[in-house]
Design goal:
Serine Threonine Protein Phosphatase 5, Tetratricopeptide repeat, elongated, 2 strands, 253 residues
Length: 253
């Protein structure tokens, strides 16, 4: 099965350049944004490289002094995007040493452990980050996904509900730029989508509950009786789309 990827939940600022159009007929953008705005700070230049997915260049620019936890975290993200997990981990740890209450870097360290299938350690980091920032929907989402990987489905569901209560769009973020990583890499996609359907159903979001119900069924979720028996889906029972989905054939992958 194709995994669901990692996303970044907060966008970088790109300063005075804004978004540069890719209109045909215009000259290509210079490889180094400093040639367009020579007074740009290294951080903004690095952010522009990240937006262009030039991760190696971004990491090199972020390394320019003075050293600070935000840049260390961003260097970690650049390495993370290149799947250089050991280098990313060192940078996240460096960011936390420089600022022990830096919840974004603590969370990102958790995503390294998650990628390495060290789910207990990931959960420890996410809980540590939430002690600093208890109102982060993205970190609660990550905590839920780590519980899900350990097959602790009740704990995962609780964390997902909390995440959704903080940010109703938390599971729909698709940005690839930011300072905080949001994990979406799961192996049991059908079951994962079932729990998202359940989460949305309990919150009263019928449209998204039905959307994730459809995804779960198409991906082979076998326990369709749960859609009828679970209390969270009670309000959907008379919905014609809900009834149609119960009869939907599993998609052949």
């Amino acid at each position: 099965m194709q995994p669901i990827g990692i996303f970044l939940s907060f966008c970088f600022a790109v300063g005075a350049l804004g978004q540069l159009p890719e209109t045909s007929g215009l000259r290509p953008l210079p490889s180094d944004p400093a040639t367009v705005r020579p007074n740009l700070s290294p951080e903004v230049r690095g952010d522009i490289f990240m937006a262009r997915k030039m991760y190696r260049e971004a990491a090199d620019v972020y390394r320019q002094p003075p050293e600070n936890p935000i840049l260390a975290n961003k260097i970690g993200i650049a390495f993370h995007q290149m799947t250089a997990l050991s280098d990313a981990k060192r940078q996240y740890e460096r960011a936390v040493r420089l600022k022990p209450d830096y919840s974004e870097a603590i969370n990102n360290l958790g995503t390294i452990y998650y990628a390495q299938k060290s789910y207990r350690k990931a959960i420890t980091q996410y809980k540590r980050a939430l002690k600093v920032n208890p109102n982060s929907a993205s970190i609660f989402s990550n905590l839920g996904t780590a519980y899900f990987a350990r097959k602790k489905y009740d704990e995962a569901f609780d964390a997902y509900q909390t995440a959704l209560s903080i940010d109703p769009e938390v599971f729909e973020h698709r940005s690839t730029q930011g300072v905080l990583l949001q994990e979406r890499n799961v192996t049991e996609r059908a079951k994962f989508h079932y729990y998202l359907a359940k989460t949305y159903a309990k919150s009263g979001n019928t449209e998204r509950a039905l959307d994730y119900m459809r995804k779960a069924i198409e991906e082979g979720f076998k326990e369709r009786n749960k859609f009828v028996e679970e209390a969270e889906f009670a309000s959907l029972q008379a919905n014609p789309d809900f009834q149609m989905l119960l009869k939907l054939e599993t998609r052949v992958l």
